[in-house]
Amino acid sequence: MDTQGDKTDPQLQQFIEIESQKQRFQQLVHQMTEVCWEKCMDKPGPKLDSRTEVCFINCVERFIDTSQFILNRLEQTQRTRGSFSETIAD
Amino acid sequence: HRLLYLFIYFYKTDPQLQQFIEIESQKQRFQQLVHQMTEVCWEKCMDKPGPKLDSRTEVCFINCVERFIDTSQFILNRLEQTQRTRGSFSETIAD
Q1: How far is the C-alpha of A46 from the C-alpha of A64, rounded, in Å?
Q2: Residue A70: its chain B contacts at CB < 8 A?
Q3: Any idea of the CA torsion for A22, A28, A33, A36, to the nearest 10 degrees?
Q4: A90 touches chain B (CB under 8 A)
Q5: Which residues form the Tim10-like domain (chain A) (predicted)?
Q6: Complex confidence, ipTM
Q7: Of A45 and B88, the one with more pLDDT
């Protein structure tokens, strides 16, 4: 990252790392809220009923499973097809 | 990266700058929330748009805002719980 590594403040680096992690997590919460709202919420009522909550729980778990599945699949495809990345339009 | 480090240095040492950024970030987050909720609740509550907002739609909007906040909190709690159970799953989530 920095060719003059000795001059980079490790505390600063750690601060950036932690803040980046926090932000990624926040974005994940944001994305999942939107995605699971779409899949699980019918007409909004006076409270969250248990059927909707169960759907939310399944949604979070399945979304993580899906992300892992896609990642594995992509890695597999990359190994099989070789440099397929040029065929994917930027 | 030098500019970033410089900025972060000032951020950490200048409380006025910190407060300014905190307030501006809050304003921006709030604006984004309004934008997102308008879209989401329009989708759930609006049938065919008529000559005015009828009370049934308004009630739906009220429920929608409340339930969306509930949902956001629910998902947050669930994710934190899942993170503790599954360990470092965050690397599997594409950046």
Answers
A1: 29
A2: 94
A3: -150
A4: no
A5: 14-76
A6: 0.74
A7: A45
